[in-house]
Structures are given as C-alpha cells and as structure tokens.
Specification:
The structure holds 2 protein chains of 2 kinds. Chain A is mainly alpha-helical. Chain A is built from 12 helices and 2 strands, in the order ααααββαααααααα. The N and C termini of chain A lie close together (11 Å). In chain B, α6 runs parallel beside α7. Classes of the chains: A mainly alpha, B alpha/beta. Chain B: It is a peripheral membrane protein.
C-alpha cells in the first residue's frame, strides 16, 4: 500500500508542470489569432465608438502586454479563479460547472461500455482465433473503427429516433417534464443511450483489437503452459491466469485515450444537442471567449490528468512488479 | 521394479510444412518407480515433445498418430480432456526450464501453489495453507511464510525454481517430468536444485523423467539414460553404460563433444600483454527523487587484468558477477567510471566517443545470442561488410572481403546473399565471428559465444575459435559461465564474483589448485565433475 501511495505522490508532482506548459502554450497560441473578446463583443452589439472599445479593453485587462496578461492569468489560476466570461456574463467556473455533468456522464458511460464490451469481444475473438467468431468480431471492429462517429450518430437518429421512434433524437432529458428521482435517472439514461453508443463504438474497436492481441500474446507465455500442466480447465486458465495479465495494456490505453475521448465528445455533443463541455468549447472558439476557452482547457487537462492518475494507481495495484 | 509410465511405439506428427514429418517416431520407453530417467538430445530432437505428448499438451496442430502412453496401465492418448485434467498435476507433475516465466507474475507464490490443492482436492483453506508451508519447507526455502506472500519477481531464479518444484510435487504425483529444469540457472544453483530433485525423488519414491541437453547433468543425476536424435530413440541404457561405453555413433559423437573439465597442456603465450585492464570500476545507479528508491549496483569494482598477446583470457563467473559489464567496458559499449583499458599504448577508457570509433577496428566483440544479435532485415554479407565500410573501405571491396571472411569461418562464400533467418544457430554465430573479424582486430572480446549452442555445434565453434587464434595471432577475452568450455580454450582464467576478481591465474593452476573459496565452490558445482568423458582430451577436435 505504501508503494502505491508513494507512486501516487510522484505522479501527482510530475503532472503539475504538464498543466502549466499546456495553459501557457494555449494562451500564447490564442494571442496569435486576430481579434479578441472585445472585438467579438462589439460585433455582437453591432459596433461602438473607439472610446467605449478602449474602456472595454481596459475593463477586461486586455490593454496591457501579452506577458503581463499571461502573468495575471496564471496568478488567478493559482487562486483557482478562472476569470469572468464576457460572453455569458458570469464567472467561467459557473459556466463550466453547468456543462460538466453532461460531459462526465457521456464520457464515463462511453468509456465503461467501450472497455467492457471491447474486453469481452477481445476475449471471445482470442479464444476462437482464426475461426469464424474471430473473423466476424475483427471485421466488425474494423467497420466501427473506419466509420466516422458523426455518421453513426446521424444514422442512429434517423433509424431509432425518426423512423422507429424508439429513442429521443437529442437533448439530455425531457425538458419541462419535471421528472424527479429514479424517473429522472431513467429519462437521462434513455437520452444518453444513442450518444454513448456513438462515442463508444470507435473506442470499442481499439479496445477489442488490443485485448485480442494481448490475450493471444499472454496465452503463449510459459506460465499459461504451467497452468495447463497443473490440470486447470481452459476456462480457469483464462480467468485465473490470462485475463489479468492481458488487461495491463488495456488499462494503459484507457489513460491514453481519455484525452481523445474528450475531443470526440465535441462531435457527439453537437450531433445530439447535448449541453456539454465539448459544445461549450466550440461556442467559445467561435465567440472569441478567451477566458471560457482557457477554463475549459484547464478543466479538461485536469480531467485527463486525473484519469491518468487513477489509471496509474490501478496499474500499480494490478501489477506487483511496478516499483515506485 | 514396477513400470509406472510406459511409452509404446509413440509417433507424433508435425503439421505439414515443418522441417520433418514427425516430431517423434516409434519411440518406446519405460519409466520405472523410484528412478531418474534422463532423456538427452540436442535442440529439435523431440525430447520436449515427448513431455508434451505425455501430458496431452502438444502445440496446436501437433498430435500423436500412433502408439500408446500407459500411466499405470491406463492409455493417456484415449482419455478425454476432462479426464486428462485430473491426471495433469495430480498424477504427473512437471517442472519447466524458465523459472522466470513459468510462474504467473501477478499472483503470489503461495496462491499459485495453493491452486493445485484447490483444483484437485476438497481441502479447506487452513489445511491448504498448512500444506503449502510444509511444501516450501520441503524444498528448503528460507522463510516459507514470507515466500508464500512474495510475487515471483521478488525471488531469485533458484528460489523460483524451488517454488516450481514445490508446486509440481504438491499432490505427490507418481511421475515427475523435469524439462531442462536447471538450464537457466547458475552452476552453483544448478548443483543445489539437482541435489534437491534427487533428495525429494528418493524420499517420495517418485519416478522422474528428466529432460536435458547437458551430459554433465546426466552424469550427475541419471539412473538410466535415453538418447534421442531427430525424433528417434537411438540408445537406452543404464547411466554407466551409456556415459562410459556408448554404442550408437550419435551418442559417441555427443559425448566426444562434451569438453572435459581437465585443461589441456598449456600452450606458449607471450609474456608481454596486448591489453591491460587497470583498476576498472563501473557502477550502475538507478535514480529517483526519493533517496529510498535509489539503487546503486557496483557491477565492476577495481578490476585489473592483463591479456597476453596471442593468448586467451577467460573471465568466468555466475550471472550478476559483472563479467558482461566488464566485457562491455573493454569495448567501450559502456563507459567505465574509472580506471584505464590500454590496448597497446592507447588508453581506450580515456578516448572520446569519436576517437573510440576509430579504435574499434582493433578491438571487436562477439555476442552471446546469435539469433538476436544480427539485424534480420539485412543480408548476411552486408552485416559483415558494414564494419569495413564504416572504416572507409569501398563497398565493393568490403563485400568481397565479406566473402573471404565467410570462407575463413567455414561458411559458403555465396551465402552472403542470404538473410540471417536462413542460417542455423551455429552458422549465425559464425556470421557474428566473421563480422567481428572483418575489421582484422587485434583483440576479440567474446561474451558467452557458445552458450546458446548445442553441444556438437559448440564444439565446432570452439574449434574454429582455437584455429583462428593460431592462424591470425588473435588475442581473446573469453567470457563464459561454463567452466568446461573455459578449461578447454583459455590460457588464463579470472574468476569474478560480485564485481570483483577473486582469483586469477594460469588455467591449469586455477583448475588444479583453486585458492579462493568461491572458485572451489564453482568447481565443486560443475555437474558430472567426477565423470571423465571416455574420449581423449582433444575431444573438441574429434567431432565435426
């Protein structure tokens, strides 16, 4: 236990510089784009005189040099203050907190589904390697992987929402229905079914391939032969000896894909009109809402770092050979 | 005595496209209670297939097509999978070669041994725990409680193999198959494991089918011996008969290829050294922010040795003794922390990387693993020509030279066009030699050059090395863990333990009257040291 704890602390310390480099880089990159928040704001209200623009710039702290702006921004971040969104007219942290649950829910369910289904299908394919179940599963995986997720989403809406009418076409819940308690949970789950599947399918394909390859590799190792020589049944060889060893690369993959999945949720949230972080990011870019955008990047970076942190701990729990 | 396991006319077919149609052909063999039967043969002789056939664990596509395997009268070949599972582990135990990989790295030793009881018996947890502790005590593991909770990577190779033996013997099987159980172990560990197997076998009356390629081990442990060649059984008899009075020509050739432990009469070697290693040290550090996780390994500590011109200096020791680190320091694949390595008048240790690259033409290295040390994507000729080309030779000349080198090491010069995988292990090691010799070095550093080879191929390569040395006036640093090989090829021997040279001297002196206790222990551990192969001392030259 001490070993895992020590590892946790070290990984945590190592992730702080990552976070800083990311934010500073993004801040400077956004400075290169022409136009700022005030330009967007003024364009929205239909123009204004130069004096007012000057005052607005002063008000939002945009009149000083880039270095000073960055310094101020980092200083505020250290106090966990994400700033004020000029577009939404409220603190960025508030804007983000409103949108975060939908994204977390979508990512969490998609990740769990992709991992579980990918694992199960991978095991199945590996146990029937080069026979028809394997061929079928591998082909299916390739189809999932090769199809863009927005197309999946749109087809899902056309078939299940429009033609069959089984599932809702978008949104997080029935607006105005006023459900509470379990009824509300069921409603949200019903709404999230299609988006989750859409987001999960591509990742499922990756997990499936990795799990299949990893199973095949582990099944060739010496200790599996030992297990069989002990008189274990094929099922017990798989569950007792192969599975946990084969899971190690899968766990690593979860950490690596956490970031990609956040990116993928931008598309899915747009297709299904979900009020999530991904859509917020898109809106923030269009509206030059620098503070909101940076806030989103900060929160997503934290999220990815957190997931990787958990993955590291999980890995250390799974594999006793990991030393701090 | 009662026959426990009897193999009758067993034929095992290989899948189409293999190098031969049958892995085993018409093999008949009897294993009696309370005996150790050694099956000897080189790689590819089918000895491990025999173990697989008995356990019903043949690789995919390989199956027994004829014959019977009778375990106490019951034909195993006709049993269902479920019936076979009740026999595996419970009535036939097995120990594998690689104790590193034969245990599940993610489960504790105790858990893996307990699994034997969980699948074959109805004992309760407390009783299982008690039995596991007893088993670990039986195999003389110190601190059985601690070992139970340990993961495989926390034990040494010898300890892991003891745990493996405890597991194989958990249910007191009547038959134990040991597939090269000591091949991956150091010589002193090997001696202990062999003693343990013998002790447990005698105590429990187990019949042991002991598969090995090493005649020294056979001499050490066998009651009876069966010799296999390309899937056929060529000779069976008592250990004494087969070892001292072999009848089949193949057995004779194999035994003749075993290097005797007694060194041949010394040859004249110049007194003047060509390579002087002085006070060389190398320390590995594994850093970490936290002091507790930092690890320091003194791999080589203040080693001073001389290599006489035209002579061979043997460096022997067990794994972790620092011999390979020293070899890598000599050719500057590693940078020594301190000390000097003088080749003639040049101190290699003090050279810059660029200057060292110039010097590499004078000092070359041959590696242990002929499979891993050649780039599989380049033609053999290119691999050999690469060195001279880097040192400024025109490519056409270098390739012509590669052909010459192939002829020198006894390969077909036209084979330069082929890729490494088209050669056998012995041939690949010859390519490795040709590659090193293409630069016409003065000193050759050979790191376990024959350890991965079969005994007959090993004899050929050793003979080639001896021949090249006298023809080219080559001086050689020869790293090995095998004292038999060292006795035959080295003029001087340095014994390393824990990074320190504990004894150094003329081969005959070191072998005849070892001074250091570790050298004595090493010599006492050589398997079959009391057995003198019934062929003349220059046996190395007799086999081809």
């Amino acid at each position: 236990m001490m070993r895992v704890l020590l590892l946790a602390l070290r990984r945590l310390a190592a992730s702080l510089p990552t976070l800083f480099v990311l934010l500073a880089g993004l801040f400077l990159l956004l400075q290169l784009a022409p136009g700022d928040t005030v330009d967007a704001l003024v364009a929205q209200i239909g123009g204004g005189d130069p004096r007012m623009i000057e005052e607005l710039r002063q008000y939002y702290g945009l009149d000083v040099s880039v270095a000073v702006q960055l310094g101020r921004y980092v200083w505020r971040l250290l106090q966990l203050d994400l700033g004020f969104s000029a577009i939404y007219g409220k603190p960025v942290s508030e804007v983000i907190l409103e949108r975060l649950p939908a994204t977390l829910l979508l990512m969490g369910s998609a990740l769990s589904f992709a991992f579980a289904a990918g694992m199960a299908l991978g095991v199945l394919a590996a146990r029937r390697v080069n026979r028809w179940p394997d061929t079928l599963i591998s082909t299916l995986g390739l189809v999932f992987y090769a199809t863009p997720s927005f197309w999946f989403g749109l087809m899902g809406i056309v078939i299940f929402a429009v033609k069959l009418g089984w599932l809702p076409a978008g949104g997080l819940e029935e607006i105005g229905a006023g459900y509470t308690g379990l009824r509300r949970v069921a409603d949200i789950a019903w709404h999230l079914l299609l988006p989750t599947l859409t987001l999960a399918l591509i990742f499922l394909a990756t997990y499936l391939r990795i799990m299949r390859a990893s199973m095949l590799e582990v099944m060739n190792l010496d200790f599996v032969r030992t297990a069989r020589a002990k008189g274990l049944s094929p099922r017990r060889v798989i569950t007792g000896h192969v599975l946990r060893n084969a899971l190690l690369p899968m766990v690593t993959l979860v950490g690596l894909q956490a970031g990609t999945m956040l990116g993928g949720s931008v598309v899915v949230e747009s297709v299904f009109a979900l009020p999530g972080l991904g859509r917020l990011a898109y809106e923030a870019v269009v509206q030059r809402d620098l503070n909101t955008l940076l806030g989103i990047v900060f929160v997503s970076a934290l999220l990815v770092i957190l997931i990787n942190f958990i993955v590291d701990l999980l890995y250390a729990r799974l594999d006793p050979r990991i030393v701090t | 005595m009662r026959t426990l396991l009897s193999i009758e006319g067993l034929t095992v077919a290989l899948p189409p496209g293999a190098d031969r149609p049958h892995a085993l052909e018409e093999v008949s063999l009897e294993l009696k209670a309370n005996e150790i039967l050694c099956i000897v043969g080189e790689s590819g002789s089918g000895k491990s297939m025999m173990a697989g056939a008995v356990l019903g664990l043949l690789p995919e596509g390989v199956r027994a097509t004829a014959g019977k395997i009778l375990l106490e009268g019951e034909n195993l070949l006709t049993l269902s999978d479920a019936d076979m599972r009740r026999i595996r582990g419970a009535r036939i135990g097995i120990i594998f070669q690689e104790p590193m990989t034969a245990l599940n790295p993610l489960r504790t030793i105790g858990d893996q041994i307990a699994e034997m009881f969980r699948i074959h018996t109805n004992l309760n947890r407390a009783e299982i725990a008690r039995r596991v502790t007893t088993l670990l005590k039986d195999v003389h593991l110190p601190d059985p409680e601690g070992v139970q909770r340990a993961y495989p990577h926390e034990l040494s190779g010898g300890q892991r193999q003891r745990a493996m033996i405890a597991m194989a013997l958990a249910l007191e099987p009547r038959v134990l198959i040991a597939d090269e159980p000591t091949t991956a172990l150091d010589v002193t560990t090997q001696a202990q494991i062999l003693k343990l197997i013998r002790e447990l076998q005698e105590r429990k009356g187990t019949a042991v089918l002991f598969i090995t390629h090493d005649f020294g081990v056979v001499a050490e442990i066998a009651d009876r011996v069966a010799v296999m060649q390309r899937g056929r059984l060529v000779e069976v008899g008592s250990a004494e008969d087969v070892l001292d009075r072999p009848e089949h020509p193949y057995t004779k050739a194999l035994i003749a290829a075993v290097p005797p432990l007694a060194p041949p009469p010394p040859q004249d070697v110049a007194a003047e050294p060509i390579l002087r290693i002085e006070h060389v040290s190398k320390t590995y550090r594994k850093g970490g922010l936290i002091a507790r996780s930092r690890r320091v390994t003194h791999a080589v500590q203040d080693v001073s040795l001389n290599l006489p011109r035209g002579g061979t200096l043997g460096i022997v020791g067990e794994s972790g003794s620092g011999k390979s680190t020293l070899a890598r320091c000599i050719v500057r694949l590693l940078d020594p922390d301190s000390g000097s390595i003088c080749l003639g008048d040049t101190d290699l240790a003090a050279l810059s990387r660029r200057a060292m690259r110039e010097q590499t033409r004078h000092i070359q290295m041959v590696f242990q693993d002929p499979f891993a040390s050649l780039n599989p994507r380049r033609r053999a000729g290119e691999l050999v020509a690469q060195g001279p080309i880097i040192h400024g030779e025109p490519p056409a000349r270098a390739l012509a030279k590669a052909k010459e080198m192939f002829a020198l090491v006894g390969l077909d010069p036209d084979a330069t066009e082929r890729y490494p995988h088209e050669f056998s292990g012995g041939q690949r090691q010859r390519i490795g030699l040709a590659r090193a010799l293409a630069l016409e070095p003065q000193v050759l550093v050979a790191d376990e050059p024959v350890s991965a080879l079969d005994v007959s191929v090993q004899a050929q390569v050793l003979r080639l090395l001896a021949d090249l040395r006298s023809r080219l006036g080559l001086s050689m640093v020869f790293i090995t863990h095998d004292l038999r090989v060292a006795a035959q090829i080295c003029d001087r021997i340095a014994v390393m333990q824990g990074g320190v040279v504990v004894e150094e001297g003329w081969t005959a002196e070191v072998f005849g009257a070892p001074r250091h206790s570790y050298t004595q222990a090493l010599l006492a551990s050589v398997p079959g040291r009391d057995w003198v192969p019934p062929v003349q001392a220059d046996a190395l030259l007799a086999v081809s």
